[in-house]
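Hi team,

As requested, here is the filled-out complex form for the flavin-adenine dinucleotide run. I kept the field names the same as last time so the parser does not choke. Let me know if anything looks off before we queue the next batch.

— J.
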Amino acid sequence: MNEYEAVLRPIVGDALHLDAPMARYTVARLGGAADALVIADSVALLEQTARTAWSHGWQVRIIGDGANVLVADRGVRGVVIINRADKVTFEESGVLVAESGAALISLARACLERRWAGLTWAIGIPGTLGGAVVNNAGAYSGAIADCLLWAEIAEPDQPTRRWENAELAYAYRESVLKRRSAPFAVLRAALQLQPNADPAALRAEAEQYSAHRRRTQPNGASLGSMFKNPPNDYAGRLIEAAGLKGTQIGGVVISPQHANWFINTGNGTAADYLALIRLAQERVAELFGVQLELEVELIGDF
Ligand SMILES: Cc1cc2nc3c(=O)[nH]c(=O)nc-3n(C[C@H](O)[C@H](O)[C@H](O)COP(=O)(O)OP(=O)(O)OC[C@H]3O[C@@H](n4cnc5c(N)ncnc54)[C@H](O)[C@@H]3O)c2cc1C
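And here is what came back:
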């Protein structure tokens, strides 16, 4: 029995999986094994697992839908927690309080049904509320930073507490959490939305965003946008201008439809992704003097 099994099995039972392949927990459908993986279907289990692992000095990585992470072929050391805690409450004042494993798309749909404005931009963004809070997920005219009231966050050796929006220091696809090296777990978040919106206007807005995604987003397993857009430009435009659209390495191809999307054609590996990432960065820097910065996060033993 290894140490993860000895410590975690009595606490989490069947939710613990040892040497567990990550491919099934990431949107790009690839990644090596986690030493220990716990599927947390409640906030209590999420927090307890994280605190137990922290107290043993183990590395902990919390994964929502794995929509923004590239997991190394050699896998992830320590404990990975897959966050499935997804209870939601809607308050009359237009405040939505959700557990961090709630799917952002489901929250956006639920708001539409209730005629609440303010989250329609999220209608096509995969991932959980927790991932969105960390990454400041956004699209079109909106982002989490614009509607987040507070996030409830656990840290080692500290009582769990609410962080107000200002403390999260949001910027474009950035937050103080994303840059943070010390461990933390987002447990819940509250969003301020606007009730009693015009249903026809909301539906039209949602349809406009969905149609735009259908028109512009390539099909297939991917991580969405690979790179952040540099100031006053588009990463996809630069990669295309560098002649790299359609370039394939191993099982991963730079989408012929949208050059900032790298598609796993079926048997792609993280190494294939990394080789294409480096190629795009080098070529764009050489030709245009622009350093493309990853939007996607590399995790595990690269
Ligand atoms: C097809 C496609 C389209 C996309 N379109 C968009 C878009 O329009 N706009 C946009 O912003 N993004 C987009 N993305 C990227 C992605 O959807 C977002 O970044 C999303 O917020 C990731 O959420 P997640 O739950 O999958 O996070 P994950 O990828 O699982 O995790 C992301 C980071 O957050 C951390 N994390 C996650 N949950 C917690 C938690 N509870 N506590 C502590 N840390 C946590 C992880 O450890 C990791 O560091 C797209 C991705 C795809 C595949």
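Two things worth flagging: The two ends are 27 Å apart (CA to CA). The longest strand covers residues 33-40.

Thanks,
J.
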